[in-house]
Fold this sequence. Notes:
There is one protein chain. This protein is mostly helical. The protein contains six helices and no strands. It has helices at residues 3-29, 31-40, 59-70, 76-92, 98-114, 120-150. The mean pLDDT is 85. The chain crosses the membrane at residues 7-30, 66-90, 102-134. Keywords: Membrane, Transmembrane, Transmembrane helix.
Amino acid sequence: MNSGKRLLRWASGIMIVLGTGHLSLLALVARGDVAGWVDRGMWAAVPLVLTGGGADQTVESLQNDVTFWAGPGSFGVPLILLGCLTWHLAGRGVAVPAGIGWGLATWCVLGGVLLVPSPFFAGTVSGALIIWAARSEDRSEAARDREIDLA
């Protein structure tokens, strides 16, 4: 396995573990709210209630909203999907652009600074690995081009 593929596999593994861990932790901490969604039906997660006259939300409805945005509406699902995509592309030998790594690293640093303590900073490692893999791919392409020019 070449180094770029190995780096991308590590990056994707970290993303999948972070996203899955986030959703699993929510399922343990807020299992009552999640079970309530199942009992009340599909639209119970964030019900669309149009309140007239500026009525205030109840504590229960705010907790329900927080549970949704901390769970299925959070970064966990897209992070798992990005990790799976990166794993798939690495298996096919397709380089993930460095811009994806820079975006992921920046997002994770910002999230880590705003939400301390959190495992957001671990996502920065994934971003750095994607950048490293993209740069090593660029270097190997440049070396191949030089070899072709010399031949």
